[in-house]
Amino acid sequence: MSVNGAAAVQIYFPAGTSFVTTSSGYYALTAGANTVVFTGSWGWYLLDKIDVSPYVPPSAPPLVPISATGNTTYEAEYGTLSGTTVETSITGFTGTGYVTSFDSASDSLTIPVLANSTGLYDFFVTYNGPYGDKYTSSSLNGVPNGEISLPATTGFVTIAAGQVLLASGVNNITFTTSWGWYLIDSITFRVAAPPAPHQVTGALTNPNASAAAKKLMAYLLSQYGKHFLSGQQDPASYAWVQANIGESPAIIGLDMIDYSPSRVAFGTTSRAVEDAIAFDANETIVNFCWHWNAPTDLINTDAEPWWSGFYTHATTFDLAAALADKNGTKYGLLISDMDTIAQKLLLLQAANVPVVWRPLHEAEGGWFWWGRDQNPAPAKELYRIMYDRFTNYHKLNNLIWVWNSVAASWYPGDDVVDILSYDSYPSTSGDHGAVSGRYNDLIALGQNKKLVTLSEVGEIPDPDLLQVYHADWSYFVTGGEWINGGVHNSLDFLKHLYSSSYVYNWDDIKGWKGTTTSTSSTSASRTSSTSASRTSSTSKTSSTSKSSSTSKTSSTSKTSSTSKTSSTSKSSSTSKTSSSSSAVQTQVLWGQW
C-alpha cells in the first residue's frame, strides 16, 4: 500500500473466514484529496473498505530521570513534532511508533530528558536509515550541538552520538532535517565514564622518517590534550587573521591542487612549495592537502569545467577500473601524477620542511572521484599505493601521513596512518560545538593510539566546550568564507577563540623546532575525570570577551537531500568565466575546499 505516491509498505493480512478490520499504521495526509493505492504483492485477498481517523498522539509517560548506574531511553513518539509524523508501518521499532517525515529544512523533533545532576552523558540514537547514508542536525536546549551521521541500515539500530552536557532538570534534545529521509525511534543516555588516557606513542609509520618530521610529531604530541592549535588554509586567510584578529595562526594549510598535471595542461601555476618554505622558515607548521584533478577523463563542459576535475561529477575517471589494470594507461597516469607531486614534496624535503600530508581527503563522502560510488576499497588501495610510492620509491621521509575518513570500512590501516582526522561542516551556521561524536569515533577507530585532529572546519569549536567535553582535537584548519565572511564564525567569536589560553597560535609555538619532548602521551593529557579539572579556558588578554553569535541564514556545506537516495556534495563549485591561471586559483580554492 502507498499513500500519495510515497514508497509502498506491506500490510499483513492474516488468514480468516470473514471480513475483519486490521490497523495499517499512521500516515500523513494533505488537505484535500489523497490517494491510497493497493498493489498485488502476495495477492489472493479481498478488500472491502478503508477507514481513516485523526491521529491521536499517545499519552507520554511520566518523565523518568537518567539512571545513575545504567541506560535510560526516551521514545521519540512522545516528543514535540513540527512537520514530522509518527508512523508504525516499518517494523522493528520500540514503544508505540517512530518519527519520520524529515523532508523539509524546518522539520523537527524535540524530546525532553531529565537529568538529576549537571554533567556529561553518553548519547545514543536508535534510528532506521532505509534510504542511504544521511545526517541529522541536533541541538541541546536550543543551542546547536553538531551533526549526527546516520549510515544506511536495513532496520532499526542504535549508534553512539557523542556526549552532551546536560543541566540538572529537564533538557530538550532537538533533531532537525539536515539531509533528511530517516526514521528516529528513540534516544538513550547514560552517565559518561571518565575518558581513558591516550596511548599515542608518537612513533611515525615510516621507520626512516626524518629528524624534522619526528620533531614535528613529537611537538604535536606534547600539546595533545593540552592545547588546540590554530590553522588557516591559504596565505590570504592567514593574512586576514593577522590583520583582523592581531594573531598569527600556528599552522598554514596549502594545496597541491594546481600542480595536478591535468590542471597544468590548462595553464595553472602555483607557489605553494615556495610559500611552504617561507612559512616553515618562520616556524609555522606546514599542512598540505591535494585536490587531485583526475588524471584524465575530465568532462570539461560549461556545466562541468576542467577545474572542477577533482569532483566526482566533473570526471568519468573510474578509479576501480584503473586499479584493476596495473599495466593499463590509466593506472600509469595515476602513478605519473603521484610522481609529479612527489617531486614537489622532495623540494620541501631538500629544504628540511616537515609536512603534515593529507591526501585523498573526505573519501567516504563520495563527492571526490577517489570516493566514487562511496566504495572504500579503491580509495584505500590508492592511498596505500601512494604511501608505498612516496615512502619507498621516492624516499620521502619528511611526511606525517593523515587519513581523513571516519568509518572503519574506509580505514587503510594503522601501518600507513600517523594522524586521524575529520572535516567538520555543521549544517547550522554558528554551531561551535565540540564535535565530540566524531572525536569519539576517531578515538575508537585508532584505539586511542593515534593523534586526532580537525583537518578542516567550517564553524570552529569553542575552546571552552572542547575542555568540558574532553574533545582533545590537536588542531583545526579553516579559511576563506568560513573565516572572513562573518556568517560561520563571527568576529567576536574569533577574538574569543584566538585569545583563549587553550588555543595555541604562532607566538605560542615558536621555538618548537628546538623543543625536546617526550614521544608518548600515555596519561599525559588527563589528570582528573571531572569536568571541574578541565576548567573553561581563560583569556590571554583581559580586553577580549566572547559574545553570542549573530543570526545566520546562509546555507552550509552539507545540505538537505532532495531525494531519498541521492548523495549530497559538501559544497558546489561556482561559475567561472576567466581563463587565466591566477583567476582560476583564486576562484576555485574555496569553491571546493
UniProtKB/TrEMBL annotation:
Pfam families hit by this protein: CBM_35 (PF16990), Glyco_hydro_26 (PF02156)
Compositionally biased region (Low complexity): 516-582
Active site, renumbered: E362, E456
Matches recorded under CDD domains: CBM35_mannanase-like
Chain segments carrying region Disordered: 516-593
Boundaries of every GH26 domain copy: 211-507
Feature: compositional bias, Polar residues: 583-593
The keyword Hydrolase is annotated on this UniProt entry: yes
One GO BP: substituted mannan metabolic process
Location of the CBM6 domain: 72-190
Gene Ontology molecular function, alphabetical: carbohydrate binding; mannan endo-1,4-beta-mannosidase activity
Source organism superkingdom: Eukaryota
Alphabetical UniProt keywords: Glycosidase, Hydrolase
Family: Belongs to the glycosyl hydrolase 26 family.
Descriptive protein name: Glycoside hydrolase family 26 protein
Organism annotation: Serendipita vermifera MAFF 305830
